[in-house]
Amino acid sequence: MSLPGTAARANAMTPEWRNRMLTVRGLRHAYSADRLAIAELGFQVNSGEFVAIVGPSGCGKTTLLKLLAGLLKPSAGSIYLQDRIVSAVPEGLAMVFQEYNRSLLPWLRVRANVELPLRYQAINAPERNARVARSLQAVGLAAFERLYPWQLSGGMQQRVAIARALAYQPKILLMDEPFASVDAQTRADLEDVVAKVRMQFGITILLVTHDIDEAVYLADRVIVLSSSPSRIVAQIPVEMPHPRDQITTRASDNFVAIRSEVAKLIRRPAEEATL
Q: Which of 30, 132, 148, 237 has a CA between 20 and 30 Å from the CA of residue 126?
């Protein structure tokens, strides 16, 4: 599935930018003179790639997402969405939050919640209807479009939030601990939903999570941050085939090895600090 105008934009780009979706250069952020959250970060996310960011608690992962989304202005450095610098919330970016119940409007039915961002775009009614139907079908909620969010379980509400992001057809989807508020089984189900729609829609995803297993299971690459003020400790490629399976993939030697490597990198700064 390609976005309208994607080919035209790609043809207008130089070869240097053509495969880049997100580029971060020399990023630094301080909340005050004595509170430096991000020391310096630089990385790239390619079109269609799934990148997970992990790190110790309080290392600045959510701050990083706010910077990438244009909700915060960095103290230094630059962020590009494709070839355009991010100076405010950019067009073509969607975000799924941890607190799904706060992102949905309880007085609107599921279908209206998914359709909401499309009403602010120059899209005719048939196209809006098609996008909403396709997105609800992709997350397994086609039969629930007439219900209200409060009539759904937590996992189903988060599926509504994901469907809304898909209907918007973003260039990149940012996800901030999207499954942290649900139980383990629902979390596994939602991970598989995201993996499926990522392949179906060819979407670029950047996920922030505290769950190492989740990062390795979903991502093509895991970026490990240090403790605050954060820097990049390592970027670990996840060379495992798709589609992945909650049982077979997680039991594989490759999964266990990558998971252990990431865990050691996260724990190392804290262990060294106590020496």
A: 148
207 burial (CB, 10 Å; 0-12 / 13-18 / 19+) is buried
- pLDDT digits over 83-115, tens only? 899 989 888 899 998 777 778 999 999 999 999
Please state the separation of Cα 5 from the chain's center in Å.
Answer: 23
Asked whether 10 and 18 are in contact (CB, 8 A), the reply is yes
pTM of the model: 0.88
Distance separating alpha carbons of residues 237 and 51, to the nearest angstrom: 9
Domain coordinates of the chain in residue numbers?
6-92+170-273
CA distance 51 to 246: 19
- Contact, 207 vs 199, CB < 8 A? no
Q: The domain 6-92+170-273 is classified under which CATH number: 3.40.50.1980, 3.30.1050.10, 3.40.50.300, 3.40.50.2300?
A: 3.40.50.300
Where the chain has pLDDT below 50, the residues are 1-13, 270-275
